[in-house]
User: What shape does this take?
Amino acid sequence: MDSGLLQIIDEQLGKLQIPYHLLDAQGNILLPQAQAGTVLLHPPAFTAPFAKCDTLLLFRIEGRQRLYLALHSLQKSTLDIGQMAAAYIGVQLENDARARQPMDREEFYLRLLSGVLGAQQTAAMAAQYHVEPARERYCILLRDSQRAMTDFIETLAQIFPVSAAETILSIDANTLCVVVAQNGELAAADQEELAAAIEDTARDQGHDKLLIGVGENAQTLDVLPESYRQASEAIRIGETYRLNGQIFFFRKLIVERLLNSIPEQTCRKYYQLLFNRRNNRLLNEEMQRTIRIFMDSNLNLSVAARAIFIHRNTLVYRLDKLQAATGLDLRVFDDAATFKFLMQLGNRLGFDKQEG
Assistant: This one.
């Protein structure tokens, strides 16, 4: 096994604060490296993920080669820790094996975006496939959970100029990624125009549920995985916070990213200031729909009333009722922003509506 990979695994296992050994199929010690080569035990045959052996727990590591993780503790918590550690080692071994396999240009990009290539491998592969490492790029991620996206690859190739789309990657059956190369200064408006064109074309082909995430510009090739992560995160945020539209730009999701950084306990505390048992009846589904439409109408009473199909005075009555109960007048921008923020906390917590 590669010494660099062993060092990475050793560093992570050292954080467990439990005495450990990584063993090969014959029971020879691989880690800690100071004891490498000696035999700890002869692993018994077992089909379960783990087995108890005297004073230690032995975890089987799935992969292309049989390995075992021995943790010298029988405490109940060791079982969960060991299973997670064994899974981690298995993933590291699989990634290392994949990185060593021959690849074409598309596979190079897939491995780059998944983060399995180190800096030296990236530089070497970029030179081999004539990929300019200093060129500015960004990722557009397309995801349709309802329909396979494989039929859309050829269409995407026609949308993008040859010089713009460096590669179009099939991440899985429902997800595509376009790596877009910057040609000079590409304005943010141009990026939005491009994403809108993709959405329109996809809708024409029946991809009505398509979600599009756009990452920020990566100045060099080695940081392109960050743009890919941002594009994926943008879609996840769009779904979590039920944002309008189907195109989500990571750079625009500042408030939502801030909300994600707030501890859940703090979110719950402030969310329940408004959405609580006392306001449960007032903030029913009809009232919340009224509030959402009013906010989407830029706090315009007449526009919102027409969208809800109620008289303007009825809308005023509902807002007055809400103000009396909560102290927030949604016709005032600051109060509307406060209410919106608290509603978003509910989305962050995964609440469909107020708690009872």
Summary: The mean pLDDT is 89.
